[in-house]
Design brief:
With about 625 residues, this protein is α+β, with helices and mostly antiparallel strands. Helix content is about 30%, strand content about 20%. The chain is built from 20 helices and 25 strands. The strands form 6 sheets. Strands 4, 5, 6, 7, 8 and 9 form a 6-stranded antiparallel sheet that branches. A hairpin with a 5-residue loop joins strand 14 and strand 15. The radius of gyration is 25 Å and the shape is globular.
């Protein structure tokens, strides 16, 4: 059954987006910068930004690491660093910018970082003694430089230890995409999406597809690159159509289209990790949305915004050699889902140490005789596991794989020359994977055990840390924020939203993050009442806002609703006026293939008391329904 949304899509023409750096000495005034941001910046500008006296202060208050000013010197350095043809001069590392420093996402062979012993997951916290916390692209200027020179870095390792390094800058040839074939498995190792990556995908698949029954696309530590190349690469698996949408601050939509037919009909297994970002997420989300395969690994980085650079070529009245990079679009997958914050949730969420081995287990050809095999039907494709071989050679990876299955995943055991359906619990016993199970132990009497354990399988619920969930307990306002923060995989250091949310409290990051995203409000007089019980209609309102954040069709649906019509609709008569939009979104917005509305709530709206407290199981069931129906969780 294919779900869709009741709304019209306003789409315009395709466009190309660029990126990179920040400020010190500037020709651009704060007033001019604000004027440009008011016209183009995708988010609302914080009121405090209008009090800024310098560009440094302005962009600190904006709080967007992708939006900043570049002096003429910095802009030239940026232009020099933009990929031309798979080569770079630097320390030899792929990086991401975080609030805790410059995160090393990948290490390039032959670079100074490799020789120094740096590894993915290390954090650069200072360059030449200057702090990089929080990090932005201005710090990159300090790292790059002339070939043969050295840069001094302070690095924090994942175990918390800190070391200083002097690393040589080198010129490195980057071969960002390589394709091989082994025993019927095509393997595409893609380190970044460069200008020629789409061509590399086409050439590799064309060369080996006749002999490949499955493809593995390794995007681990691929931090992105050229968006159009990601679309071209994606098209080799999914074919023609709009594969990426953009929305600007005015609410206008644009799209990128692939015009070619798919080259292969075989499924893709996309490997991801935390450092798979931006264009990598475009590719992984497209495979998910278009039903072209599955993904295995950890959740991706969560960059769902795109930037443009304003300079003397396109805005000559403001710039003379200098430039301003601005986040101007949110981007969305083929079905309208964002990757911002939430990233791409893999079909099988497994730890980084077992990702490759789990994928290997799924690469067997369909056996001529099913006896001794497991068959997993995931995202519309069948994957086969030779149990004897798996238990002998990959026993731990097999247990990790089984523990990643949702409770209602489609699992079959080959027996007597036929495929016999078995439960995930039976598969867990068969593979001796009980110790790896993520399911909660106290859900025997919960009507929502399947939904709760599905979220547990995907790392969205963690319970009380002792294997229990306490399903019937009510949910406080702070606890709901924590649940949503886990679902979106985001907690920032944002603070100052509410006077009764101390930065020292366990929930502070989650509450302030949800407030900064516009998902939650206070209760008046500047307070949030974090320990207060969340009511049903408050929960419904917040979930409606979450849906609008996650999907642009839901966003348009919410904006199309008439408050007058909602007030006249007897289905919402018992709700406060501010809760009716959310109620409509959760009960009427999604429709099935026969044009029937899909209820995302845990129960019929008519059976819910708006002022009653929401319980943990009710909240989890609704969240699971939303993420599955909108296509964020697919299995």
């Amino acid at each position: 059954m294919k779900n869709c949304l009741r709304c019209l899509r306003r789409i315009g023409a395709a466009l190309c987006v660029t990126a990179m750096l920040i400020t010190s000495v500037s020709a651009l005034s704060v007033e001019d910068a604000l004027s440009l941001l008011e016209d183009r910046y995708v988010n609302e500008i914080p009121a405090a930004a209008y009090e800024a006296e310098t560009l440094d202060e302005l962009f600190a208050l904006i709080g967007d690491p992708y939006t900043y000013y570049m002096t003429a010197e910095e802009y030239q350095a940026f232009l020099d660093s933009v990929e031309g043809n798979d080569s770079v001069t630097g320390i030899g590392a792929g990086i991401n910018y975080t609030e805790n420093g410059i995160l090393i996402a990948s290490i390039l062979s032959g670079g100074g970082a490799e020789d120094a012993g740096l590894v993915p997951g290390d954090l650069i916290i200072a360059v030449e003694g200057v702090s990089c916390v929080p990090a932005d692209e201005s710090h990159r200027v300090m790292i790059v430089g002339e070939e043969g020179t050295y840069v001094n870095l302070t690095v924090q390792h994942e175990d918390g230890s800190v070391e200083d390094y002097s690393i040589e800058r080198r010129f490195i040839e980057i071969h960002n995409t390589n394709t091989t074939l082994d025993n019927g498995v095509g393997y595409i190792d893609c380190d970044s999406f460069g200008t020629e990556t789409g061509t590399y995908f086409k050439e590799g698949i064309t060369t080996y597809d006749d002999d490949a029954h499955i493809w593995v696309v390794d995007l681990r530590s691929n931090s992105g690159g050229v968006t159009t190349s990601a679309i071209e690469s994606l098209g080799t698996f999914v074919g023609s159509g709009p594969l990426l949408y953009f929305r600007d601050r005015s609410g206008d939509y644009y799209y990128n289209v692939c015009f070619d037919d798919p080259i292969t009909e075989s499924p893709a297994i996309v490997l991801t990790n935390l450092y798979s970002a931006s264009a990598s997420e475009v590719f992984a989300a497209g495979i998910r949305d278009m039903g072209a395969g599955i993904s295995v690994g950890t959740r991706t980085y969560g960059k769902g915004v795109a930037q443009t650079v304003l300079d003397s070529d396109n805005t000559p009245e403001y710039f003379d050699g200098d430039a301003l990079k601005v986040t101007v679009y949110r981007f969305y997958s083929p079905t309208g889902n964002t990757t911002d914050k939430i990233g791409v949730i893999p079909t099988l969420l497994v730890d980084a140490a077992h990702t490759a081995e789990v994928a290997e287990l799924l690469c067997a050809e369909e056996p001529s005789e099913p006896d001794g095999y497991l068959m997993l039907h995931l995202a519309g494709w069948n994957f086969y596991i030779d149990l004897e071989q798996a238990q002998a050679e990959h026993s731990e990876a097999l247990k990790v794989l089984i523990s990643a299955l949702a409770p209602d995943a489609a699992v079959y055991l080959g027996s007597n020359d036929s495929w016999v359906p078995i439960t995930t619990a039976m598969a867990t016993t068969l593979c001796d994977a009980g110790e790896y199970s993520r399911f909660f132990t106290d859900l025997a009497y919960s009507d929502y055990a399947a939904e709760i354990n599905t979220l547990a399988a995907y790392g969205i619920l963690r319970g009380d840390g002792d294997g229990t969930f306490d399903a019937e307990d009510t949910l406080t306002r702070a606890e709901l924020c924590a649940m949503l923060s886990q679902a979106l995989d985001v907690t920032t250091s944002a603070e100052g939203y509410f006077t009764d949310v101390s930065s020292q409290r366990w929930y502070a990051g989650a509450v302030n993050t949800m407030a900064s995203m516009g998902l939650v409000n206070g209760v008046g007089d500047g307070t949030f009442n974090p320990n207060g019980t969340m009511t049903q209609e408050e929960f419904i309102t917040i979930m409606g806002r979450l849906a609008a954040f996650l999907n642009f069709n839901a966003y348009e649906y919410a904006n199309s609703l008439s408050q007058e019509d909602l007030a006249a609709d007897e289905r919402y008569a018992g709700l406060s006026s501010w809760a009716r939009t959310g109620a409509s979104m959760l009960t009427e917005m999604m429709i099935d293939g026969e044009d029937n509305p899909i209820n995302l709530l845990y129960d019929d709206l008519s059976a819910i008391d708006p002022e009653a407290p929401i319980t943990r199981e009710q909240a989890a069931a609704t969240l699971c329904n939303l993420l599955k129906t909108m296509g964020f969780i697919v299995y």
